[in-house]
Amino acid sequence: MSNSSRATRLAAAAFGVLAIGATAFSTPATAAPLPLFPFFLPPPMVAAPPPVAAAPQDEDQAFELPARLRRQVVSYPTREAPGTVIIDTPNTYLYLVLGNGQAMRYGIGIGRDGFTWSGTQTISRKAEWPAWTPPPEMIARQPYLPRHMAGGPGNPLGARAMYLGGTIYRIHGTNAPETIGKHVSSGCIRMTNDDVTNLYSRVNVGTKVIVLPMTERRADLGVATR
User: Fold this and answer.
1) Cα(113)–Cα(91) distance, rounded to whole angstroms?
2) Averaged pLDDT for residues 62-90
3) Can 148 be counted among the known catalytic residues?
């Protein structure tokens, strides 16, 4: 092959390479660039999970009772039989007699001035998340009250109720735990929802309940034993 033929062929080959390159660079600007290393693929995009709503905070947990009003086993010498409930009205305590000189003590809220009472009753009925129907005498004093309220967290009777004989009074929970230790009710005995649930599980219909008068200030025997 002559030198001139060889030069002609080399020139043609070079022109072909330039033509291919020009064609490659003439593709539209919107085309996606090829990855530098196609065998290393980027991870797929994963949508972020939706935020999780915080659980509603329990009112008993949100409010911390003073130490003296917290549920605890204390020394409590009494002649009453184990299982008896004693309401110490002046000191805002409820005792559940355990026997052997001990009792489970709970902090309670009691009747305001003019609404305390005393006597002996028995638990005649128990209810979980009780409905509330204010008695006529309460409606007369507070006409803005609802005539009936279904049971639930917003109900002022709270999580449990133990009805006392044929009276209008109950031992019940509350949605206002900050009132424990105070004189605020219309004669009912209120406890935190946690405490009333605990007491509810320990007593039965027929349990004896002794409510001490406001004038009988028994010494506070609140020496915790455990």
Assistant:
1) 14
2) 95
3) no
88 phi and psi, to 5 degrees? -90, 85
- The stretches of the chain forming alpha helices (DSSP H) are 3-25, 59-62, 136-141, 193-200
Catalytic residue (choose from 161, 172, 187, 212): 172
**Of 126, 194, 115, 191, nearest in space to 163 by CA:** 126
76: left (phi over 0), alpha (psi -120 to 50) or beta: beta
d(CA 19, CA 33): 20
Each residue of 94-104: pLDDT tens digit? 999 999 999 99
Residues in the chain, overall count:
226
Q: Annotated catalytic residue: which of 157, 188, 203, 212?
A: 188
* 122-180 tens-digit pLDDT: 999 999 999 978 878 888 888 888 877 888 888 899 999 999 999 999 999 999 999 99
Question: Tokens 């009132």 appear where?
Answer: 179
Task: Work out the burial of residue 69: count CB atoms within 10 Å of its CB; fewer than 13 is exposed, 13-18 middle, 19 or more buried.
Answer: buried
Q: Model pTM? A: 0.68
Domains and CATH numbers, the chain: 68-211 (2.40.440.10)
Residue with tokens 């990855």: 35
Active site residue 183: no
